[in-house]
Give the backbone structure.
Amino acid sequence: YVPSLLVLIAIFIVRFVFSMISYGSGLPGGIFLPILSLGAVIGAIYGVFMNQLGLLPHVYIMNLIIFSMAGYFAGIGKAPFTAILLVTEMVGNLTHLMPLAVLSLTAYLVVDLLGGAPIYEALLEQMTMPKTVQQLHRPDRLEIPVFFGSPLNGKMVRDMPWPKEALLIGIRRGEQEVIPHGDSLIREGDTLVLLTDATQRARVKRRIDALSAALGKTHQNS
């Protein structure tokens, strides 16, 4: 049984969209299986399309699925030899070794000529610190205590206009250190841990103090 072309295209679109949503959310997860499954669906789409045109016998569709998995993995991960060995091990024989090698190397060269980056490096760049922090010459930690009655108490991290020269990397709460996100609440007794450049440390401290003072005045007026 071979699914229809429209069914395969729908499967590819749904799989691709959900993969983007999953990794766009920033949640941890593997990308190894999604790459192989998307490659397999692409091979199936091409094989069924060629079969319906009468240009490819039905028996060769499975071969195209195998080749496409290797080619897609080699292009996305820019690791052709890993793709060759991986798919060969999955198939369990060396019959497809030569076409796997040709397709994987071709996919790698095309992506390289187009200036594509490996998927793992691209994801790491999106998930790590902003460029303003990556370019710090002398990274330094600045700790800001939140005292009793501080106007920072009860504020969400996303509602605070943090200095561009600094990045909030942690909230120390007792013996625990909370990884901050937009919905994190700042509480009395917390210690805010910011990462900044050593040359900007005093400036960031003054801006945080000024921010606290401004929030205090706003709270009093309200």
